[in-house]
């Protein structure tokens, strides 16, 4: 479409179409300027400014209380406690409390900062010209002056209530991250050094769930046992059986090479930890002629006739032995706990 076909009333002002030529206006994109600044009620009423200051401080205090609640949740709620909360259903009480308290702590810091900026900090819009990437000394001086003016306008130095409560909220929030380090695992205390075995606890067959007698263990057989009183329905069964799992074999007493192993056995019935000392796999392969047991994961091999010492593979330590005897009813029983921690890498952990 040529310019002659454009209706004259639709052409921009300042254009001449007498000879079919378009003349561009001198400044087609004139600077519209900034609208006049309208003061807020906080700018003209100190009582309103005080109310906003107290509101911001209240939000920061709520953030501090939420952080304290986050830390307290670790102490109050057990890790395995499940509660019903509508409409979420059955949830972990600890996770629910941690999520809400941490979320509120961060929310109130953000809400307080936004309310502070919208009601108390200066809202005057300032237009500035573009400048080269490299700042000149005059620009640097101007930036520092603007920063000082902004700090003064924010009331950061004058409104001590906001400043102090903000510092309190920001100082407490990082404690939530410190408490989250607990999720790397519960403090082991002495749990790695002890198992459910204790003096007088009978050896229970893992398959039949019946107490074992010496005659139940035949020469060349491999039997697995757990401590009396444990049940597969216990909430901590998997944790405890991972330390207390026991394998029992019967060896002719004259074939036992290790003196202590013979003393801790009963008529050739010996009991060793089932947990490999390499990475904790359950040992289940037994060769009756050599009395060797093999870990199926990485082929660590232990000699059960010689204190369960390592004869092949990456395991670095012998299997711990459990001292056993017979009670007055003729059942095999433990005469104490393992004399050393079971499982892998304990010595490296200290």
TrEMBL record:
It is a multi-pass membrane protein. It comes from the Bacteria. The chain crosses the membrane at residues 55-77, 97-117, 161-181. Residues 238-333 form the Rieske domain. Gene3D superfamilies: Rieske [2Fe-2S] iron-sulphur domain. It is found in: Cell membrane. GO terms for cellular component: plasma membrane. Belongs to the Rieske iron-sulfur protein family. Iron-sulfur subunit of the cytochrome bc1 complex, an essential component of the respiratory electron transport chain required for ATP synthesis. The bc1 complex catalyzes the oxidation of menaquinol and the reduction of cytochrome c in the respiratory chain. The bc1 complex operates through a Q-cycle mechanism that couples electron transfer to generation of the proton gradient that drives ATP synthesis. This is Cytochrome bc1 complex Rieske iron-sulfur subunit.
